[in-house]
């Protein structure tokens, strides 16, 4: 097992949530030589940052995702179907590029819609107030079908 800690070279994740550039990324990997290349497996740990999709508050999540991939030698025999597995990568015989493997592992482990809490009420759709700060917040909304009558009343008085 090899343990590496390094700053993230790019944002690892999505536009909504991800490990920021420069954030600590910890890899714990094992490398196994096989006949067609090198099998890499282990885990990636980091802290992702983003925004709650309901209230836009900052969200921090710990990432602990499995990492795996087969790095094939250029001259190894491959089946005709190159797309047989998404865990297969090119290996030049000298350097294993882990960026794509790590990026994919982190992105797939993050929630599609991050929340600050599972019961986050979000923002008021009328004025944008945080509903968690004022649970009794409400607006008097007039049914649009009656708005013409409201206009008549306003004009008379």
Description:
The chain has 157 residues and is mainly beta. It has two domains: 2-120, no CATH class; 122-157, no CATH class. It contains two helices and seven strands; from the N terminus they run βββββββαα. It has helices at 99-109, 147-156; strands spanning 2-7, 12-13, 17-19, 24-34, 37-51, 58-72, 88-90. Strands 1, 2, 3, 4, 5, 6 and 7 form a seven-stranded mixed β-sheet that branches. The protein is elongated. The model has no long low-confidence stretch (mean pLDDT 87).
Task: Offer a quick outline of the entry.
The chain contains 2 helices and 7 strands; from the N terminus they run E-E-E-E-E-E-E-H-H. It has 157 residues and is mainly beta.
Major sheet size, sense and barrel closure = 7 strands, mixed
Low-pLDDT stretches are none
- Total strand segments: 7
Helix content: 10-25%
Terminal CA distance reads: 81 Å
Count of DSSP helices?
2
Radius of gyration: 25 Å
Which term fits the overall shape? elongated
Overall tally of structural domains: 2
Strand percent estimate: 35-45%
Overall average pLDDT: 87
State the secondary-structure class.
Answer: mainly beta
Write down the secondary-structure element order. EEEEEEEHH
List keywords for this structure.
about 160 residues; mainly beta; 2 domains; seven-stranded mixed sheet; 2 helices; 7 strands
SSE topology:
Elements: E1 2-7, E2 12-13, E3 17-19, E4 24-34, E5 37-51, E6 58-72, E7 88-90, H1 99-109, H2 147-156
Parallel strand pairs: 6-7
Antiparallel strand pairs: 1-4, 2-3, 3-5, 4-5, 5-6
């Amino acid at each position: 097992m090899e343990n590496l800690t390094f700053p993230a070279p790019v944002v690892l994740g999505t536009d909504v949530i991800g490990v920021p550039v420069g954030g600590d990324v910890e890899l714990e990997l094992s490398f196994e030589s096989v006949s067609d290349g090198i099998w890499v497996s282990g885990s990636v740990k980091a802290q992702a940052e983003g925004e709650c999709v309901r209230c836009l508050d900052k969200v921090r999540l710990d990432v602990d995702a499995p990492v795996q991939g087969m790095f094939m030698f250029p001259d190894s025999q491959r089946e005709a179907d190159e797309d047989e597995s998404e865990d297969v990568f090119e290996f030049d015989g000298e350097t294993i590029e882990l960026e794509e493997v790590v990026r994919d592992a982190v992105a797939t482990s993050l929630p599609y819609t991050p929340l600050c809490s599972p019961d986050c009420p979000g923002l008021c759709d009328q004025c944008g107030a945080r509903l968690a700060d004022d649970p009794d917040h409400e607006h008097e909304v007039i049914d649009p079908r009656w708005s013409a009558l409201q206009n008549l009343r306003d004009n008379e008085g």
